[in-house]
Fold this sequence. Notes:
The protein is of the alpha/beta class. It contains 16 helices and 16 strands. It has helices at residues 46-52, 84-91, 96-101, 106-115, 118-134, 150-166, 189-211, 231-243, 260-267, 280-289, 298-303, 311-316, 337-347, 352-358, 361-365, 394-397; strands spanning 2-10, 27-36, 39-45, 58-60, 65-68, 70-72, 137-143, 170-178, 219-224, 248-252, 271-274, 292-295, 321-323, 384-387, 404-409, 412-416. Strands 1, 2, 3, 4, 5, 14, 15 and 16 form an 8-stranded mixed β-sheet that branches. It has an 8-stranded parallel β-sheet with strand order 6-7-8-9-10-11-12-13. A hairpin with a 2-residue loop joins strand 2 (27-36) and strand 3 (39-45). Helix 7 (189-211) packs parallel to helix 8 (231-243).
Amino acid sequence: MLIHSANQILTLAGGPQKGARLGRLGILEDGAIYIEDGRIAAVGPSGELRRRYAGAPEVDAIGRVALPGFVDPHTHVIWAGDRAAEFELRLEGKAYLEILAAGGGILSTVRATRRASPDDLIEQTRARLRRMLQHGTTTVEAKTGYGLDQETELKMLAVLLALAQEGPWELAITYLAAHAVPPEYENRSDEYAQEIATRWLPQLVPWWREHAAGQSLPFVDVFCETGAFTVAQTEGILQAAKDLGFQLKVHSDEFDNLGGTRLAAGLGAVSADHLVAASDDDIRALVASGTVAVALPGTPFGLGLPGYAPAGRILAAGGTLALASDLNPGTSWCENMQMAIALACRSMKLTPAQAIAAATINAAAAIGWQDRVGSLEIGKQADILLLDVPDYRHLGYRYGVNLVGTVIKRGQIVFEA
């Protein structure tokens, strides 16, 4: 396939972008991309590539913008049910603890997910993945975490593996049994953390090798936050995971500065996510370790809170900043990375160019996939979006509408508006 005559091609070439380098889009005007066997074989001027590949099937992109497919590096895409009633209660002024006491909050999603059959979970999750794809997300990090018992967590992993096989989306899978303390371990959070570290993680290794032969182990994540897991509990789980060969991720500093971000950096986590309350020391630790800082602007927006991840301080320190949707049923039910970009521009003061880079090549780095997706370079997967706009700055400028006209995954057109 030859895509030609694009107003702009955003190549994002050169790898993840740190600090002041964020926003280097590598723009090629009147450009073309030649795809062969699902990979990018050439990028260059339209006239030159049309001559070189005369006779190839063509896609006319005149008046449009081509860029890499979005990578969403933090989602809770698999769950059952919804929490619409809880949203209304919050708007009426009910506090989270009141909602929790009434049977709401994360535990209501846990109950629904435990009851759901694998087929139910596949159906509900597939619909969300399809909406993500239609809005330009071609690669999705997908966490478990609404089981909070080993049986349901493994059920969720099996569903994610089935959906990854189904495609056309591509999933980077994360095991998040340490998302919250389940009701059967109420007031025994140390015991629950120990159960994950000493029993469930060792059980997961042979299970994964049986059910996902040849695939790298999933990430292991912990929600290190007041009311969830302490720094000591988080360290115990993550160190056990690291010793078993898992790569690490951390939810940290969403509401309170507990030290989870520095722990993530010290353990060499691939990413630390949320970071609203991160200190300058935390940010310096991230930069020194190479851990990617993942901002989730949909979450404070969904909660109606004023605090967002400190993008300016992260970039000033030379950090690698990525964007994600935090798609989840409680605080950010949004399948649209274009909305995350728009929020980042307004609430984190990123330029559209910076937000696009954070949602593509840097987001790929947040799952360790920067060598395969996130930019339009020779040899990489042909994951490409064609926007029905003449200039990339419409991303961020416009919101609440889908600007994606065509989605190409591994060289195949998988969605056209």
